[in-house]
What does this fold into?
Amino acid sequence: MRFGTSWKRFQRRLRYWLNHSEKNRLLREEMEFHIASMIDELVAQGMSEPDGRVAAHRRFGNMTQKSEEARSTWIAHWMSDLAQDLRHAFRGMRRDAGFTAFTILIAGLGIGASCTVFSVVNALLLRPLPFRDPGRLVWITNGDDWTATQTEHFSDLRELNRSFSDLAGWSGYYFPGDSELTGAGEPERLTSVPVTGNLFALLGVEPAIGRSFTAGECQGSYSAPPATLLSYSFWRRRLAADPKVVGRTLTLNGHPVTVVGVLPASFDFASVFAPGTPIDIFIPWPLADKTKPMGNTMKIIGRLKPGATLRGAQAEFTVLGKQLESQHPERNKIAPTLVPLEQHVSGPVSPALFVLACAVGVVMLIVCANLSNLQLARLGTRQKEMAMRTALGAGRSRLLRQMLTESVALSCCGAVLGLALAVAGTRELAHLHAFNLPLLESVRIDGSALLFTLLVAIASGVLFGLLPALRVTALSLREGMQDASRGSSGGKGHAWVRDGLVVSELAFACILLVGAGLLIRSFLRVLDVNLGFQPERATALRIDPSFRIPGFAQQNSFIDEVLRRTRSVPGTLAAGITDVLPLRGDRSWAVSAVGQVYGKSHPPPEPFIRVVSDGYFEAAGIPLRLGREFTERDRASSERVVVVNETLARTLWPGQNPVGQMITTDGGRQVVGVVADVRHAALETASGSEMYLPMRQTGDYAAMQLVVRTALPPVSLAAGIRTALRPIDPNLPVREFVAFQDLVDKAVSPRRFLVLFLAGFAAFALILASLGIYAVISYSVSQRVQEIGIRMALGASPTNVQSRILLRTLRLAALGLALGMAASRVLTSALESLLFGVTPGDPVTFIGIGALLIVVAALAGYFPARRASRIDPMVALRAS
Amino acid sequence: MGTDKPKADLLPGTLDMMVLKILTRGHLHGYAIAQLIQQLSDDLLRVEEGSLYPALQRLELNGWIEGEWGLSASNRRARFYTLTSDGRKHLNAEATRYRQVTGAVARIMGFT
It folds into this structure.
């Protein structure tokens, strides 16, 4: 059938169905004409008029039935049946409001959770990255997933390769607040990213206003870029979305830069490449400029040519890397590693998301088991209704369909509630900025999430309605019409099904609880890690002076002045300056000790470099292990000194006293002290080597972070420090104090995200499972009032009755627990990569969760058991 | 539920085909269609009213016939049906198919 005609037919059917009362009347009129004609004919044949009428009606048959038959062609049967069933369902819902509300609430919570998790998974994993043809974008690193590449290598690779239509890059060494904006309005530190001019074209991003960088703009000087592209959010926030912004001049680090364009709102660089650090502006990166930073500084991204494969490109780049290394021994090592950009962005979060998706699936199963159980409990009342319908001629499939329609209608109502919850939940997640997860800002309820919700609603409705529907329709007519609800033997199979549901609920809840338990314990272990510094009450403020510092003397008097004034603010316990805050930044140099020989097999260690002033160790809470800290007297003119961490000391001088040793790096320095290791990369990874240079002896740093340890809450100190520093530099932007605790919180936020979700799901599962036990036990008590009455009349004590019921509860719980524990033991090994400091078979978690579940089950069984023990045998027996 | 199928004494689809064929004679109401089928088959085929009206609804929904209200010879309001061009095409197709089927059946039964 051609589409056009079937569409026309559908339209006609729909029209008929919509006007069905009018159509029905006309059909009857048509049929009445038929009868009238028949009467006419019979009368013409000699019959009397009344006889003719009777005969005609007899021949024609039941007009209502005929018209229904005729009408059935208007629209498929199922549709009118559906309408009828829905009417029944809603009538039923009104009749049993408590049950309905409970069902909708439970289903709504479950569906809301599913929909939220789906939206997160959709945004982070399923939806393509917000760039043109993102499947052809490739992330190119140097060795491991995070090491950057030297710009010289980048230029050569870009020129020599044949696999990519283009390569682009940006500086991996930008930090929050790198640039200072002065001029009109309050001075402000901006986060700026130096990018190659072709980056936006390569990603397929068109500026919303203006244009991208020209080749000329990418030839300027690194420290004073001639042009800038604004991020959409910065343009809105700082420039009030000025439509004529292109051509305006901003003062950046004391130099004028021209705004050439504004990037579109849909382009969120930070959320893809650097979650948690919003970017304000982009500046061109002049690759040929001699003043640009040396070393491995560049993050590279490439777009594969049509027809080129990742494997082929990798092979080519491996060869190119070797070739470049042999041609340019003076440069850093290069071993290009290619991964699809999508994998680079969402790869690290996918195990956690997979766990979340499984967890929410288990939650939905528990929800269904619970609702199924609830429906089964109501079967007593429904049974008679169904028997009546059967007696009136409804077939089994028709009844089955009615029951399923009811449960699906309920779950769809739940889905409406769930959607509302999910909309609120995703909005909260997208705007929270509390979690360092890529693309989290783009989490929202979209078309696919709506479709998913609908599918979940229907699937869960069928799932939790199927069992009760099968049961109720399987019961014979006779059984239903008699009042069979009495006596202890009423429905043995029935009880078995419900017990099975409760056991599976408990088993599922057990799996979730064990998973959540393991992750919570890992989280606590991570928080318990010895950071090497003390984040409490330490706070940092970026204080790079807005004026040029021409020499060491001026620089050091600036440092002296800042520290003196800060330390005089009441409440300050310690103050110092550093160039890099913990958990941010990873500049490293190769360092060799005097008197040691290094080669290919024995390379020198590459510690992270920190440039700090006196007082920093105390302010950050980094304990001194040996020797001394830096002092005010470590100046340009005095002996060149260095402080190392324990790991570096152990690596360079194993078994020797490191204090007094010399290193050859940076013109030769003497070790004066050893400090504790600081976790600089992540809380979970052990610290590497670190080396601290005194700030007063070097100019080789990119930022000045004033770190203050306070006795008061850091917030209350901010105003005092601001006032104290104003005389030194009136232009000092003091927008942001960064609490060290925030640095730690940011670093653990992906883990916290997972733990919060999973703990919530586990708690929900526990509540549902305990409700399930409670419902089953108290139902069985109410079914067996008589039996219990007889037992008590025959001499069973209330304690005896109570313990029998409790035992039954505990038997169910033990069975569920055993199944759940066994399944957990198998499943938790999949969690291994997410755990920290605990094994997947962690006995503490397993035993703790087991005990928790038994206690909860016992409590859920206790109340019905107590009720049973208070049954008065006389009342119970008389009631029958 | 099977109520919209023609009665078993007719081959499936034949009622629809016959109604369409009758309507090639001009526009007719349901009663006249039933009468004509009966007469033309020498009273061998009698159309059940219970099948006729669903068949008419079905044909109209498919766009093969069109119904219109008018006055009958006895001056009563009746619904008259006419064949559409789609209906004519469908009739030809059905007739060809029917001839093939009955021919095949007849050959097997040795009627020819």
In short: Confidence is low (pLDDT under 50) at residues 1-8 of chain B. The first strand of chain B starts at residue 28 and ends at 29.
